[in-house]
Design goal:
Length: 370
């Protein structure tokens, strides 16, 4: 009986927050008596009725459908021409290049592809190169770079990030600049366009190579070690070129404002694509005046210096000519999405309106007492 009384007192003291060795009462775990901690904050919960839901469906439909039609028409007005030069078919002019060329080839292969434009391109024309079945979104591929090195950090230039493995150092044990798998697989085909006039005279179309990269990439994220106007040969003296490159990074261009890490072709390639089939801006054909089209209707020739092998991963290569509008390049998906969502909302509004008109009065009458 005494033991039972003792245990009861001990348990009661434990639960009531008895004093500890120092005489202080144990802290209570009860939350403060505030509106937030006691969940007494005011709340608003909308009540969905036919008077609120039906107008919402019709308004969304009436707004989205015209916007979608406008986006779709604008996208269709963008002129675009695409030519595949992978060289898969034996009849393709680039077939021999695709069969015999590899990363280890020292001599580039050249091929010419004739094509014609049925309609002129009036405004500025953007030249893209496109790749298929190339997974730039692979987790290890995306991480295989050193952003500090690309920003001109001298320590990272000599001590690249371990994320760049196995493209962190070359066969001479010198650190690679730029390191990583993204830089190592940089697209390096050379594309040239020629216009063939009725007299069979070839005229080279000037392609602008500046202004193809994002401004923030060109002026913020990418910088040469020692400054963009430094002697790049001396800056990269202790580094090795990427394994698959034919020349070091300081020989990408003769223009000092487009060489090294600030080369715009290199910057464009380093911005990885989200999908395995993608296109990247290669050059811009600027319109000279408003009297003549940028690319008139007629015959053309695409001269390709075949440096980039894609058969090893069953890829495809293509060249795209495209104009742009206020919404960017050709992309009918956004217009189709707006039209689809608007049509579905409008259809649901009609269906719910019929149901409400047919069964709404019946439910209201059943609530009236006899």
């Amino acid at each position: 009986m005494m033991a039972s009384s003792y245990n009861a007192k001990e348990e009661d003291g434990h639960h009531s927050g008895a004093s500890g060795p120092g005489g202080a009462a144990a802290k209570s775990k009860k939350p403060d008596n505030t509106a937030f901690k006691q969940q007494r904050l005011p709340a608003w919960q909308p009540i969905l009725t036919a008077g609120t839901v039906l107008p919402a469906f019709f308004v969304i439909g009436l707004i989205f459908i015209p916007i979608g039609i406008g986006l779709y028409v604008t996208s269709n007005n963008i002129k675009e021409f695409e030519i595949d030069y992978t060289g898969i078919d034996m009849s393709s002019p680039c077939f021999n290049c695709s069969q015999n060329f590899s990363w280890n080839s020292t001599k580039p292969c050249k091929c010419s592809l004739p094509f014609s434009l049925d309609q002129p391109f009036e405004s500025n024309v953007f030249v893209y190169y496109g790749l298929s079945n190339f997974y730039q979104n692979h987790r290890r591929y995306v991480k295989s770079r050193d952003d500090s090195q690309l920003n001109g950090d001298l320590f990272s230039l000599t001590h690249p990030s371990k994320e760049c493995e196995p493209y962190r150092s070359g066969s001479d044990n010198k650190p690679i600049a730029p390191c990583g798998a993204i830089a190592n697989s940089m697209f390096n085909d050379t594309l040239e366009l020629y216009y063939i006039d009725p007299n069979e005279t070839r005229t080279l179309i000037p392609l602008v190579k500046k202004g193809i990269a994002w401004w923030t990439d060109k002026h913020v994220k990418f910088r040469n070690p020692g400054g963009n106007n430094s002697n790049l040969t001396a800056s990269f003296q202790g580094n090795s070129k990427p394994v698959n490159w034919n020349k070091p990074v300081y020989e990408l261009d003769a223009d000092p404002e487009n060489n090294g890490f600030i080369n715009e072709d290199f910057i464009v390639w380093m911005r990885t694509a989200a999908l395995p089939t993608f296109r990247k801006l290669y050059r811009i054909i600027q319109r000279k005046n408003n009297m003549t089209p940028t690319l008139p209707r007629g015959n053309y020739t695409l001269e390709v210096t075949y440096n980039y092998p894609v058969r090893s991963f069953e890829g495809r290569k293509r060249m795209i000519l495209s104009t742009i509008s206020w919404m960017g390049g050709k992309n009918p998906f956004l217009g189709i999405a707006y039209i689809t969502v608007g049509s579905v909302c409008f259809f649901l509004g009609v269906v719910l309106l019929i149901i409400h008109h047919k069964y709404g009065n019946r439910s209201n009458n059943s609530d009236i007492p006899n």
